[in-house]
Amino acid sequence: MKRRTGFTLAESLLAITLLAVGVIAITMPFTAGAQNEQDDVRRMLGAALAQEMMEEILAKPFNDPDGASAPGPETGESSRAAFDNIDDYHGYDESAGSVTNAYGIALSEAAATDLSRHVSVAYIYVAGQDTGESPTFARITVEVRYQGDELLTVTRLKYAYPGPGPEDALDDDDNSDGGDIVEEEDA
Predict the structure, then answer these.
(1) Where is this region: Disordered (predicted)?
(2) What per-residue confidence (pLDDT) applies to 187?
């Protein structure tokens, strides 16, 4: 009787199964890590988009220069570039794939593909304030969504300065040397 050398079919199947389980066990952390990295990049981009929008809104005056008081853009203010105060941003939406920067340029990063932004502005009255008066605060909320689900929300309050705002505090007439104010940038 000849003695056979080698593996049986059952032994081969067992070896292949153990090898497959080992490969899966080794690669799982790497694929999970790659997914976590994509999530982190998306979250960082979403935070930057929310903060950029919030800074753009906060740079606008509290009160409408034309005297309008209803939240939302007035007639003729059909784009962000035309918004002239904070409440013009109320109801502003950028759908997934059409998120733009402050210059109106659509973002092309892969992480921004399914991101969208929504802005709401609500006037807030403090306790004891007559609601017949102009509101004292506005609550600004910028929400960034990923595939329709909330990714993050940034909320700020802006105070209505009585009289001229801080942006009116320095006027060319107020400069002692009569010149313009110049900001220098580091190279």
Answers:
(1) 160-187
(2) 36
